[in-house]
Amino acid sequence: MQHLASSLLELITQTSTNLPPDVRAAMGIAIDRETPGTQSAQALSIIATNIDMAANDEGPICQDTGMPTFLVHTPVGVNQIALKKAIQAAVAEATKRGKLRPNSVDSLTGKNSGDNLGPETPVVHFEQWENDSIEVKLLLKGGGCENKNIQYSLPCELDHLGKAGRDLDGVKKCLLHAVWQAQGQGCAPGAIGVCIGSDRAHGYWLAKEQLFRTLDDTNPDPVLAGLEAEVMEEANKIGVGAMGFGGKSSLIGCKVMAANRLPASFFVSVAYDCWAFRRLGVLLDAQTGAIQQWLYRDPSQQVLQMARDEGFALTGREVVLTAPVSEEQIRSLKVGDIVLIRGDVYTGRDAVHAHLMKNPPPVDLNGQIIYHCGPVMLKENDQWFVKAAGPTTSSREEPYQGTIIKNYGVRAVIGKGGMGAKTSQALKEFGAVYLNGIGGAAQYYARTVQSVKGVHWMEFGIPEAMWHLTVHDFAAIVTMDAHGNSLHADVEHATGDQLEAVGAALFRK
Known about the structure:
Blueprint: H1 4-17, H2 21-33, H3 39-57, E1 69-75, H4 80-96, E2 123-129, E3 134-140, H5 143-146, E4 150-153, E5 156-158, E6 162-164, H6 168-182, E7 190-197, H7 200-209, H8 222-235, E8 251-259, E9 267-273, E10 278-284, E11 291-295, E12 319-321, H9 327-331, E13 338-347, H10 350-356, E14 369-371, E15 376-380, E16 383-388, H11 398-408, E17 412-415, H12 421-430, E18 433-436, H13 442-446, E19 449-456, E20 466-480, H14 487-506
Parallel strand pairs: 1-2, 7-8, 12-13, 13-14, 14-17, 17-18
Antiparallel strand pairs: 1-3, 3-10, 4-9, 5-6, 7-9, 10-11, 13-20, 15-16, 18-20, 19-20
Helix pairs in contact: 1-4, 2-3, 6-8, 6-14, 11-12
């Protein structure tokens, strides 16, 4: 199979860098639906520009390339052991080339393998079929949206919706709740794959497997087709909006299947995927490994360009922040302000924050800006370069952030999805702000990086190290200010009320 290695590498590269046509079309609808001039519309504009940038330069759409999940169908007689080794080799090579971020971490030691290989990484599911070709499908689903997966055990009580029973109405309530609870942490507008029934473990896999369907298909089961259409319509009334900023576009896809269950159990398993819905596939010649056909895309067809304009439109009212930032300037900012960051920022996510709770920082952080980001980095001629650098979900740092702001004088934190009450109190007490970047916009933000000035704590692995970057015109929105205001809390409250209203109208007997 002389072409197998190159075919698998091309599949991984295209999946990471080029959204399939059905996702582009769904995102186009979301962009056209949104109210111009709103924060959600601004976010969608950056997202559209980022999609085009990634495809044009073959750079990762989002820096979090997730846990590579392969679904493989083989003819009888194909050596699946050899095929799995070839997939692993292709994953390692794609990581080396910067198409995948090294994401495989030892769960006991915390050590990053550096090549995306390790026990049960990548995930490969094999099934036999009676066709002559090998089918390989790949899903790249990042940690932010993976953390917003949710499983319900019916009957149960749901916030704003009340009791969800063991019937279709109960399932419908679960799916609306799943979209609502993701908020900006799931990088809305997103899509959900759903399994009704099965057991806990298999139900989650069957839900994720639904994400291999195209967003524009029709469920062959008329009952489930009706459920999918209704959830799509009603979920977009809740108002979560792009990145959880509030708006008209919250869901771009809903795909549901039903599996038999035990009498004692009624699970509804939901796999939430973000707007960066990376999923492609190929048919391979079983003798040579050459690509016979692409699935989900036709390379001969022109790629739909997403950007309607030049990206984020500057108005002249933006506030420039250059570290070290003064407390006075920070306290002059309010929720909704747009900032342009110029100068130094330091990346820091889970490992860095945990370490700073017990150890001093390697640099003076007084007046500085911390970026919740695990970038894709490549080293060329002894110089590091940023290949992808969007924000990660900030809520994971909630146990640490307030203390770090207090202890080290940090003035601004960049991330996505917002933070909680403890951080909000620290922002108010010590004079700092939370800046929301656009989740997944890894190419857009990578292009704002002018240089990599250094790196600290490399022993944590590339995504978790503290990178010292110089940026220019890094755009973000103040969503939590130094006066106790939070856009995230406001949107969660408003969408909760709207979810309750949708539920009252939908389930009124």
